[in-house]
Amino acid sequence: MADPIRVGFLGIEHIHADFWQEVFQDSPHTELVGAWAITPGLTQSKGEELGYKSWDDRDALLNACDAIVICAPTTHHAEMVELSARAGKKILLEKPMASSVEDLDRIGAVLDETGAWLMQAYPKRYDPINVKIRSILDSGDLGTLSLMRIRHGHAGASNPVFGGTWYTDPELAGGGTMMDEGSHAADFVRRTFGDPEEVSCFISSAAQGYAVEDTGIAIYKWANGLIGEIVSCFQFHGGDNSIEVYGTQGAMIVSGVDLGSRDLTETAFLKTFVVPKGSGRGGKLVLHDEKEWTISDIVPQFKRDTPTFHKNVASAFVDALVAGDPPSCTYEDGRRASEMIIAAYESAKTGRAQKIVYG
Question: Domains of the chain by range and CATH?
Answer without folding.
Answer: 5-120+308-328 (3.40.50.720), 125-297+340-350 (3.30.360.10)
